Amino acid sequence: MNLLCDASDDTSFMEIAEQAVASATMCASSEYLHVVKIDSWFGDRWYSFSGKLLGLAGVHCPRLTVPPFHPHRVVHEVRYRTDDPTRSLPPPRPLHKRHASQSNLRNFIQIHRDSITFAWISGNTEASGRGAIMVYGVGPEGASGWYVGLERTNRWRAVKYVEIDQHEWTALICRQPAAR
Questions:
Q1: Tens digit of pLDDT for each residue in 109-152?
Q2: What number of other Cβ atoms are within 10 A of residue 114's Cβ?
Q3: Cα–Cα distance measured from residue 157 to residue 145, given in angstroms and rounded to the nearest whole number
Q4: Which residues are 65's β-sheet partners?
Q5: Which of 13, 65, 130, 147 could lock 41 by a disulfide, CB 3.0 to 4.6 Å apart?
Q6: Would you kindly state where each structural domain of the chain is located, as residue ranges?
Q7: 0.90 exceeded by pTM
Q8: Residue 97 pLDDT > 70, yes or no?
């Protein structure tokens, strides 16, 4: 799998993101992986954020929805079939479209497909020294997810965890991908 690095990406961050996303996808036994690269860092408030009601009040939904990133923030999207992660598939349609925030409140992640992992990765990590990885998975039991915020000092380290703890995070980034 290649998360499509560009000059604005810190390669060490992208290696961590790739390992975490690949491990999460493998743990979920997902048939597909859909990766969205966002132009810059995004905070943990995006986890379970569904949109704004009447343009005023932010709504966080326990039933996960596609996070309402504005389409101009999306650098690229790529989809893989996990039995051939070296070859990308064309995404069926962009996840992030221009529409009223309120209309996203029912854009549940679970309706997109069974057995899929969605990952959002922050860009511009070289200059900012901050990164974010958010993963939602859909399987037979429903949808679940997590968010990890990272900072670079001498090396990248996780500084914020949502719906995942430090031990689970360490297991994800240290897991050896299974041979295919």
A1: 767 667 899 999 999 999 999 999 999 998 877 789 999 999 99
A2: 12
A3: 20
A4: 108
A5: 130
A6: 11-174
A7: no
A8: yes
